[in-house]
Amino acid sequence: MTAFITAFWTIFLAELGDKTQLALISLNAAKHKPLNIWLGATIAMGILNLLAVTVGGLVVKFFPEHYIKYASGTFFVIIGLSTIFSK
Hints:
With 87 residues, the protein is mainly alpha-helical. Helices cover 89% and strands 0% of the residues.
């Protein structure tokens, strides 16, 4: 149950106010179909999360956890820097 609670709060807080939510707000403002938009977004996020958990389970079998942390951190720094310096 601890893993569930940790995953819930980590994702909930990390995704609060992100680009996905802003896109959904815009989409609903244009289409006025909140149930369809919520359902589509929920299914898409579920599939993406399933892929992330599956790939994570496979990757950890081949690489030590600390390498995965370094790679993830480096990836996010690169994305952040490219965002800052993009036109």
